[in-house]
Amino acid sequence: MDEVFVEQIVKKKISISGILMRAIAIIFVLAGIFSMLIIGALGLTITALLIYVTYIIWGYTSVEYEYSFLNGELSIDKIMGQRKRKTIACYDIKNAEIVAPSMSDEVVSKINNTITKDYSTRCRNANLYSMIVNDSDGRKQVIFEPNEKVLDAMYHVKPSIVKK
Known about the structure:
The chain crosses the membrane at residues 20-53. It holds the Pfam family DUF6106. InterPro entries: DUF6106. It is a single chain. The chain is α+β, with helices and mostly antiparallel strands. Helix content is 36%, strand content 34%. The protein has four helices and eight strands, in the order βααββββαβββα. It has helices at residues 16-39, 41-61, 105-108, 148-157; strands spanning 5-11, 63-70, 73-80, 84-92, 96-101, 115-118, 129-135, 138-144. It is elongated. 16% of the residues are buried.
């Protein structure tokens, strides 16, 4: 059997709470800068600490998903702040019932009593696909945004379930 390997990275849209956390962090940094004028060296220490906290918050709110498809297995990694990577899910396409656009009739008819896992950018005009999978945790609907290369690789492995 041919080895099939394709990967794709998509950037998740920042949520309202993420934007709010970033704005509050910046406001605190600005307040720390003004505190240097009043309390001197202690203000410098506080400002340095606040800048570090803002750096951590920025990385926490910057999320990307990497879809890796290797020989029939879709692996989804979460990348935070372009530094920290964690594999959050692996799905075997052999256990999938269908891979199709999320709003298609085939998917809508099969999503009853499924657990939904959303690994998309959450943009309104995104090209969302759903994969209905049966695994040890039960039946799941996996929402993701594959490009043509990922879809072609899935089609190459199991053409009967992939609907473009």
